[in-house]
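This protein record is not my work; I was only asked to verify it. Where you disagree with what is written, explain briefly why. This is what I was given:
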Amino acid sequence: MKNYITVILLLLPFLVISQEEEAPHKELTYISLCDVEEELSFWQGRVVFISFWSKTCGPCIRGFKRYSALRNELTAEGIVFLNVSIDSKADWQRAYERYRPVGINGVAKSFEKAQDDFEIFNLPVYVTIDEEGNEIIYDKTKWGNITDLVEWLDTRP
């Protein structure tokens, strides 16, 4: 009996961590093109597709170009595309001027916090947040991509 209690006490911190990691609402602070701090929660009530990117990420840049028409179409349907750079503010501004991704554009206020909160280990990382602020986890990959977003939107009433 004593061994069972020891095992439970040893596992308890991991159970608490797991519950915290599953918290639905994630926060993100970014600096907008107007040099204003903005929060992800501002978009509560809308579907938000976040693209974490960098000026040195070829797949990120190709994705912006390849799917710009689809992004425009979905924006017209009310989807928010939030493109968050992990570069320095100066590098992000130069990259924005060069590539002009469709959507709301900003630079992460704290890349380290965004990296921890959204588990960014490589780029690109795409995160879908529903109207209630919950992160959508796709079947094929955790984060999915724009085609996963379209499939998910098609399954909704």
